[in-house]
Amino acid sequence: MITLADARRIIAAAEKKAEEIKQPMNIAVVDAGANLIAHVRMDDAWIGSIDIAINKAFTSRAFDIDTKTLATLSQPDDDFFGIQDSNHGRVMIFAGGIPIKKGRKVVGAIGVSGGKGKQDQAVAEAGAAAY
């Protein structure tokens, strides 16, 4: 189970990475049920990225896959083509969402939005590693 203290530690590590790369981000952490535990919008991060970060975390937990990988699997003629239209449009198919695991069990996820895909992914990876 991811606690609020865990979520704060995950977010702090992600914020540190975002500061290193000089890109303000929205960072969200969800629990095993894909319920939002915590979210932070760094100063000057895009308002439009709030929902995207939360939905990247939701997507990663809902399907237990990082959104970067899901993006490649959801292209035309691939197995998950059109998946972004499911779940009332909450499914995100670009980098920045990562499941958080305890051993082999998924216990939650992090979602990051506010930069280019590689930046979102790097910040999410830093946050996930802090768990």
Write the CATH fold name. Answer: Beta-Lactamase
Mean pLDDT: 97
Highest-level CATH class = Alpha Beta
CATH superfamily: Haem-degrading domain
Structural domain tally: 1
Beta-strand residue fraction = 15-25%
Largest sheet: 4 strands, antiparallel
From the alpha-carbon coordinates, what is the Rg to the nearest angstrom? 13 Å
Poorly predicted sequence stretches spanning 5 or more consecutive residues: none
The helix-and-strand class reads alpha+beta
Notable traits:
alpha+beta; single chain; 131 residues; 4 strands
Walk me through the structure.
- By secondary structure, the protein is α+β, with helices and mostly antiparallel strands.
- It has helices at 4-20, 49-63, 67-73, 117-129; strands at residues 26-31, 36-41, 97-102, 105-113.
- Helix 1 crosses helix 4.
- The protein is globular and about 40 Å long.
- The termini are close together.
- The model has no long low-confidence stretch (mean pLDDT 97).
SSE inventory with pairings:
Layout: H1 4-20, E1 26-31, E2 36-41, H2 49-63, H3 67-73, E3 97-102, E4 105-113, H4 117-129
Antiparallel strand pairs: 1-2, 1-4, 3-4
Helix pairs in contact: 1-4
